[in-house]
Known about the structure:
- The protein is of the alpha/beta class.
- The chain has helices spanning about 40-50, 125-130, 135-145, 150-175, 180-220, 240-250, 250-255, 275-280, 285-305, 320-335, 345-355, and strands spanning about 5-15, 20-25, 30-35, 70-80, 85-90, 95-100, 105, 120, 225-230, 265-270, 275, 310-315, 340-345, 360-365, 370-375.
- The protein folds into 2 domains: about 1-115 and about 305-375, Rossmann fold (3-Layer(aba) Sandwich); about 130-305, RecF/RecN/SMC, N-terminal domain (Glutathione S-transferase Yfyf (Class Pi), Chain A, domain 2), CATH 1.20.1050.
- The strands form 3 sheets. The chain has a 6-stranded antiparallel beta sheet with strand order 2-1-4-5-6-7, with helices on one face. It has a 6-stranded mixed beta sheet with strand order 8-12-13-3-14-15, sandwiched between helices. A 3-stranded antiparallel beta sheet has the order 9-10-11.
- The chain starts with a strand and ends with a strand.
Amino acid sequence: MNTDFYLSALILSTFRSYDSLRADFSPGINCIFGKNGAGKTNILDALHFLSLTRGFRSTADKQAVKEGEAYFMIEGQYHKRGENQNTQCNFLPGKGKKILVNGVPLTKMSTHIGELPLVSILPEDTEMIKGGSTLRRAFLDTLIAQYDKEYLNALIFYKKILDQRNALLKWMGENKTFDKDQLQIWTEQLIPRGIQIVQIRNQFLEDFTPYFTGFFHKIVSESETPEISYLPSVSDNTVSGWQEAMEKSLSKDRALEITSTGTHKDDLSFKIHGREAKTFGSQGQQKTFVISLKLAEHKLITDKLNCPPILLLDDIFDKLDEHRLKSIAEILGHDTQGQIFITDTSYERLHSVFTDSPKEVQYFQVKNHTLKGYKPK
Length: 377
């Protein structure tokens, strides 16, 4: 078992449903069980804040403050490559959110991405297949940014330029004027970052697909063939190709008062046997597709960073058939490196899944918004 990186303790203060909490965890598998609504997912959400500076949901940070309280504090004590590291995420309305590493506040939150790598698998992740392209781009960007700082920096710069170009388009529309030369200044800055982002995304897909296909076949069977395709907004990823595409979309940009072409409009296509998983995949196929994506994400980041991310799995065993349940249990218990946190409503199901695991397994019960270690009688 790889113990180069793991969370040894978590401390919460007025975070979501918890007044206060301290829990010590195993570097192996941590199984958290309890009724729906008991607060299991909130534990995982706290770990997401510590790693990715935000919660699972795209809601305001203030909504993570326990009702009636003034702030939240999350503290994680990590073991990383032989050293101990303390990371805090604090939020106070009016002053905002801060990340502190060993007591030192970070000036840029983006520098923290990838320092505490993490992959989560959530029930709502199937929306990545059924929902809009924004969710698929978010998966792509969050994944790559954890191991590639150049990509993260390109994304940040691209968004800044995009915001400026959009603001200019809106201003021109409101003032019933148009200055193509002024708009071109932002377009010329957007293009090189866009080209860089597409290049990295293409390389990512080349690296990622074998991992994904392998996990999908292991969970389902060799007979089902999954496919992932990248659908760029600009088909010719060259300066001239981008210039031509931006020129063609100019009238649309003016009408909509936003930039309608670029990497912020790219998408991924998910297919099984050549048919769109969104339209033709069963619920079981869609769930398996997403779990395979996330397990492949974990494996790819492990190889890129030479450090396995912490893996969070929230109620993923529900409604899985016995074959898929056993296959996933085998992958988690035997093939997946690093620390795992997994929630479920049933202790019996968790125990049956991990009873033969070579990893250390600890059980925790969430009850009345408290978390306690659990040993069966």
